[in-house]
Amino acid sequence: MSKMNQKISVVVPSYNEAENIQNLHKRLKKVLNKIKCSYEILFVNNASSDNSISIFRQIILNDPHVTLITLSRNFGYQMAISAGLDNSKGDAVVVIDGDLQDPPELIEKFFKKWIEGYDVVYGIRSKRKGNLFRRISYKIFYRILKKVSYIDMPLDASEFALIDKKVLQELQKLPERNRFTRGLRAWLGFKQTGIEYTRDDRIAGTSQFNLGANIKLGFDGIFSFSEAPLHLITLVGFTIFIVSILGIVGYGLYYLFAGRVVPGFLSTVIILLFLGGIQLLSISVIGQYIGRIFEEVKCRPKYIIQEIIRKS
């Protein structure tokens, strides 16, 4: 079957995005109708507390292509994506955020690359609008992640992507709960390419993805795809051990030749505080890995679906 005649699923994780839902729906329909393919749009409502559900219901009444998946509580951004992917029926799946910062019109370029034979086509946020601190922080993070990761992590790649069904089937086999989808996507391999675009600032609404959520996602990316923090602890520990040995030898030689003890209560306190800080930092890094193991071994479901609504 030609890819032109196959079905595209669009997964939209959404939390308190009432002000963006209708505009996003209109733009998605416009680009999908332009592509002239069979399609479905899956909105994943992550237990929104605003009037999102009533807006979704109104859209479903007038559009048989739309399905609403409501989770029993807020399971987080990555789990909302997983819920949408697991319930998609298309031959390829597009993931796009519900805040309209990623342009739906780029899906047409994704689709063309898929027709050319690429299995994964992801968006590259080459430029960002909005808060300067956030823009710089993202740039730094992606470069650190690429440096420390044990896989080839594409720079500035976003969750906004088109994924072929055969890649999705492999992605669904990966069991981890602390998910970093763009990292898992890169880990799977297959034929991939990226398309650069400018990430817009919010048109409406307030971001629910705060600094804490960004830090957690960053930790998931680093601790899921890098052993560098553990290697760093080993290196720091070994360095301190060598310095300590040299200090002991130097102190002994000074006592033998000078015949007196070096005074220095303050220096002793500083050294103890320094070593204590290193130990606490090391324990916290190890704790990040242990915490992820703890989450995995419980084997709880990644998410719970409260209801699925679609037009009969």
UniProtKB/TrEMBL annotation:
The chain crosses the membrane at residues 232-257, 269-290. One of its GO terms (molecular function) is glycosyltransferase activity. It is a multi-pass membrane protein. The keyword Glycosyltransferase applies. It is found in: Cell membrane. Belongs to the glycosyltransferase 2 family. GtrB subfamily. This is Glycosyltransferase. It comes from Candidatus Roizmanbacteria bacterium CG11_big_fil_rev_8_21_14_0_20_36_8.
